[in-house]
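One such shown below:

_____
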Amino acid sequence: MWSILWPIAAFSAGALITAYRGQYTEYASALSDVIKDVEFVRDKATQYWVCDADPKKDALAEVEIRSGLHQISRQVYGTFSNQLPRLGSVQEQLLEFHSLCTGGDFETATRAADRSTASELRTTAASLIVDLRREKIRVSQWKHVFWVIGEDVIGHRAVKALIARGCRVARWLGEKLGM
């Protein structure tokens, strides 16, 4: 009997892992796109804030900054909407990054160069990029695939509840996954 069931179980597990692995390869690729967009907006916003207002140059820079921030928001909240609890502080950092890029005298003709805003902006962007890269690395690990399968089968809250109730297997899994 086991000689018949074993190959079927192995094939099913392999197919399931392959499907989830493909899904999370796309997720990692989307994270790379967000990182590139954050770097683009960071560079444009830094150039914008280290110089005094120049209506000819600023119009294009303001449009690029606003559209870049909009694209980042759409990617994060559209593509990763079901992943946001896993992304942790990324949401807060995105809000801070957005307010630094577009806050203060943004889009005013009397804007003076503000190097402190540019510095804060680059620091926040660096922190955001590090967290996004950490998430990308975490997703690429095999243990993450097993965690996601477990979440999809029994749910994230159920896994957390099992850990809280002292289930040895769930606690071991949580320790291995850094929960």
